[in-house]
Design a protein that fits this description.
The structure is a single chain. This protein has 371 residues and is mainly beta. The chain is built from 3 helices and 26 strands. Among the domains are: 1-157, Lipocalin (Beta Barrel); 300-371. It is 7% helix and 47% strand.
């Protein structure tokens, strides 16, 4: 997926007025010139399927269709906020027939993060609302059966009431007193948040955050109770991850690996059994780098360096933790993502680089083969 880059925020400071005038004129001629475009590429970089105005695509198991969140409103020169994405629905695009099919529409907010369930017969997607001021996020999960055109709710929207500020901020809770003194229009409730959703085989898992409000919280609760849950084939809790400050960048995440196991990040990466509900023996030295992507066979992992401002990846061996290779840096890059092939014989990375303020960004998809 790509989108025409428009300088914003700090990078827009100092740019001449002519830069913005040119953008406005281009927008007048083509109101959607900077709306997101989805492109499916082969390993040679050739575009084999293209869809206009969509977010977060996923490929069907037979590689013939794409599912995505369709951008309903023109979003050129606008930010990705709950309001600008309101009404976005889920579409399936047949790459051979060049036809789209409407799968689901939102009752409120917008729909996003759709993907095909492994059987290829249904689609899972999130229901999103404004959760952090103007910014949106997933608060519920639904599933659509493509064969029977039937929708089912896997996780309903829920909210927790906010704790009102006292008439006069006082007492021992100095943090709450300070926050209460800063806000003028606090929210009355906080939604549950979905931090991650993933599927494997015929299973669906999610990391769910239940808000624990404190006085003075606005938009989002400051603390959430984190749970790893299963939604398919049945709904149940797998693991309680404890309470965590939402601002903590090292909050839990997980990666699915074969044989009903998970790699779970909680302070460091650990192997967990879905069969027994217990932690398994360590697979190597403790890896505290959250931005790590393990190969399906657990022999290797990719991790970002430096950890606080990553500009390249390194390939490591899981057993022993030895660094095997350092992937080349590019000019002013940012490492966006990395993914392994199912057989662990290849991996791909996505980086984006720019030449300076106001310059065009360049996204690069690079595929590597293991020796």
């Amino acid at each position: 997926m790509n989108r025409v880059h428009v300088a914003d925020g700090g990078e827009a400071e100092g740019l001449p007025e002519s830069y913005f005038s040119a953008l406005k004129e281009r927008q007048r001629k083509d109101p959607r010139f900077a709306d997101p475009i989805i492109k499916l590429l082969d390993l040679h970089g050739k575009t084999v399927c293209e869809v206009s105005y969509g977010w977060n695509p996923s490929i069907s198991p037979d590689n013939k269709s794409l599912v995505y969140s369709r951008q309903k409103k023109a979003i050129t020169l606008l930010r990705e906020l709950a309001e600008t994405q309101a009404g976005n629905d889920i579409q399936v695009f047949d790459c051979e027939k060049k036809q789209s099919r409407l799968v689901a529409e939102p009752d409120t907010g917008y729909l996003d993060y759709a993907f095909f369930f492994p059987d290829g017969n249904s689609i899972v997607y999130t229901e999103n609302e404004a959760v952090n001021g103007a910014f949106g996020g997933p608060v519920a999960i639904s599933r659509f059966d493509l064969q029977h055109s039937h929708k089912s709710t896997l996780l309903s929207k829920k909210t927790v009431s906010a704790i009102a500020c006292p008439p006069a901020a006082s007492g021992k809770d100095t943090r709450g007193s300070f926050l209460c003194s800063q806000i003028s229009d606090p929210t009355s409730s906080f939604p549950q948040l979905l931090f991650q959703v993933a599927s494997a085989d015929h299973q669906l898992f999610a990391l769910l955050g239940i808000p624990i409000p404190s006085p003075g919280d606005s938009y989002m609760a400051s603390t959430y109770d984190i749970h790893l849950i299963s939604l398919v084939p049945e709904a149940n809790e797998i693991l309680s991850m404890g309470k965590m400050d939402i601002a903590n960048p090292d909050r839990p995440t997980f990666q699915l690996v074969p044989d009903r196991r998970m790699m779970i990040f909680s302070q460091y990466w650990k192997l967990f059994s879905l069969n027994t509900g217990k932690w398994l023996a360590e697979v190597g030295p403790r890896n505290t780098r959250k931005r790590s992507v393990y190969s399906p066979d657990l022999q290797y992992y990719l991790t970002a360096e430096p950890s606080d401002d990553p500009d390249h990846l390194v390939l490591c061996q899981t057993i022993g933790g030895q660094k095997l290779a350092t992937l080349p840096k590019t000019v002013n890059p940012d490492v966006l993502d990395a993914v392994w092939s199912r057989d662990s014989k290849r991996f791909a990375i996505v980086v984006v680089s720019n030449g300076g303020s106001g310059s065009a960004y360049r996204e690069e998809l690079i595929v590597y083969s293991m020796p």
